[in-house]
C-alpha cells in the first residue's frame, strides 16, 4: 500500500475546492497567516442568532467568543488491547508528568480523558497545536505525538470527529461503507473498531470511498498505518456509487447491502472555524444552499445501499440546519417510514450537546429569511428549494429531528459538529417526484460547482493527467509457484487462505506480497470491472534474495498480526526484555548483536533455527489489565547474529513501551536549531506540520 503521499491538509469543502482550483502548487508563504485573519463576520453572527442555535443571548455570545479562539489538541490511543492499555498507562503516568507539567508555569495546562469515549482512550489537551509546536517546554510531548502518530499507536483526531464512528456501533463482522472518507481519520477509527476483538482477520471490512483521486491517497496513507487486510480504497462520486456484488457459498452473486454506512459529507465547514479561521472571511449563507443537494443525494444513495436493520450515520462539520436537519428531514420525508432516527444519547455519556432543531428559516445569500417556500422571492427560487424548509410544525413529532446531535464549540471546548444516526427498517424506494426536483437542483449546482466533467476542456485534460493509474491486483492461484516455498519455510497452516495473497504485477519477479481478507478479495475480484479500486492489501512478505535463507521472502511487519496465527512455531522466538532492548539499541547497523551476546534463552531457542526471517515475540503483563501486552516483530536470524526490523518511529515506540532510554531520539528542535545556528524554527516546523495527520 502507499504509493504517494499527497499534500492536501484541509477537509472541508470550500477550502478543498480552493486548493483544487488553484493551478499553481500551494505555497505556504502565499497563504495569509492565521494570526492576521480577522475573526469577524457580521452575516455569520446575524444568521445564527436568527436561527436560534443557542437558547439564550448569553449562551450565543459565549458561542461566538469561543468560536474565535484556537482549538485544543486531542488524540486517541489505538492498537491491540494490551498495547493500548500500556500506552494509556504511559499517558497517565508519564506523559502528563514529563511532558505537560514540566512546563514550570504556575498552572500547568489541563489534560484529561474524554468522558464519553470508551476506556479512557481519547484525550484532550488544553493546548493548541501551535502551542505544542512552538513552545520548547512541550518538545517531548510534540515528539511523542509525532512519532506515535507515525507509528499508528495514536491518532490525532479532533474530538467531535471521533463521534460518528462511535455511534455507528461497528462489529467485527460488519460490511462497512465510508462514502466520503478522505483524509481518513474516521476510516481509521472504523478499522480499529472492526479489529476491536484483536482477531487476526475479522470477517467484516471497510470500503473507503472518496470522489477526489488525490485525496484517496491520503486515505491509503491513513489505512496503511493500521495494517489491516480488511480495507479497500475506491474512487467514485458516492451520489452515484455503482452497486457492488459479492459471491455466495453456492457461487452465485448478490448485490452487497452494507451493515454500516458513514456519510460524512462535504460541507461548508463553519463548524471548523477554530481550526480554519480563513472561513471567517468567506462565510455566506449561500454556501449551505449550494451544498444541500449533493449532501442529500449522497445520503440517499447511502440509504439505498444499506441493509434492512443497518445503520447509517450522517455527519457534517457545519452548524447550518440547511446542511443538517433539512437533509435528514428530506430523506425521512422521501423514504415513507423506511428510515428512522435513533436516539443514541446513552452511548455518549457525559457529552454535552444540543438537540436537533425542529424549526429553522431558510435565508438568501443577502440574509432575507423565509419561513416557507411560498414566501421566497422569485429571484431566489433556483437556489432556495422547497425541501430545505422544516417540517410542518403539526407533524414535526413524527420525524424526531430532536434526536439529532448538535455540538457547539463552547459546550466542551471543541469544534462544532452535527451527527444523525438513522436505521433502515424496511426497503427504501425512491419517490417519482423527487427526480423532478433533483433535476432542477443539479442544474443549479452544475452552474456553481466545478466537478471534473464540468471543467473546460483544457483543464479536463490536465486533471486526467493528475489521476494516478493503478497497478493490477493479481491474486495467487491455487498452484502459485512461490507459495510452496513460503508455506514450507514458515510451516504455514493449511487453514490460511493463500488465494487472499496478491501481487501488483502480472509478470516478472514478485517483489512484495500483500494480504487481504477473504471478503475484500471477493469484493475486488467480483467488482474489478465496475469499481475503481485505488488500493487494498497489507504487505505480508517482502522479497529478500539472501543466499543463506531457503525461502526468497521475509515476513513484513505490516501484515505480521494478520498472518501470525497461521505461522508454525518453528520460526517463532520468545524474546526476553533485555535481549529485545539490546536489539533495539544496537547502534551499529552493519553488525547486529551476536547470538552469543544474548541470553541463554535466546541461544537455546535459535540453536536449531535455520538462518532467515523469524518472528520475535515479547510479552509483558499490564497493570490493571487482563490482556497482557504482546508484541510481534519481524526478525532475522543470521548465521551468528539476531536482529529485528524496525523503523526509527517503531524503535522509539517500542523502547517507550519497554521503559527503555529514548533520550537519543528526544531531540529538541529548539536546541538543535540553536546548535546548528540555523535561522529560527522554520524548516523543523514545516517538517513537523507535514508529518501531522489531518483529521
Ligand atoms: C468532510 S470531508 C470527509 C472527512 C473524512 N470523513 C474524515 O474523517 O477524514 C468530505 C470529503 O468528501 C469528499 N467528497 C466530496 N464530494 C463527494 C462525492 N460526491 N462523493 C464522494 N466523496 C465526495 C471530499 O473529497 C472530501 O474528502
TrEMBL record:
PANTHER family: NCL1 YEAST -RELATED NOL1/NOP2/FMU SUN DOMAIN-CONTAINING (PTHR22808), RNA CYTOSINE-C(5)-METHYLTRANSFERASE NSUN2-RELATED (PTHR22808:SF1). Residues 63-425 form the SAM-dependent MTase RsmB/NOP-type domain. The gene is LOC115885426. The keyword Disulfide bond does not apply. Residues 1-32, 436-463, 671-695 are annotated as: Disordered. Its EC number is 2.1.1.203. Belongs to the class I-like SAM-binding methyltransferase superfamily. RsmB/NOP family. This is tRNA (cytosine(34)-C(5))-methyltransferase. S-adenosyl-L-methionine binds at residues 180-186, 210, 237, 264. It comes from the Eukaryota. Residues 18-32, 436-459 have a biased composition (Basic and acidic residues). The keyword Transferase applies. Pfam families: Methyltr_RsmB-F, Pre-PUA_NSUN2, PUA_NSUN2. It is an enzyme of class 2 (transferase). Keywords: Methyltransferase, Nucleus, RNA-binding, S-adenosyl-L-methionine, Transferase, tRNA processing, tRNA-binding. Residues 1-17 have a biased composition (Basic residues). PROSITE patterns: NOL1_NOP2_SUN, SAM_MT_RSMB_NOP. It is found in: Nucleus. The active site is at residue 317. GO terms for biological process: tRNA methylation.
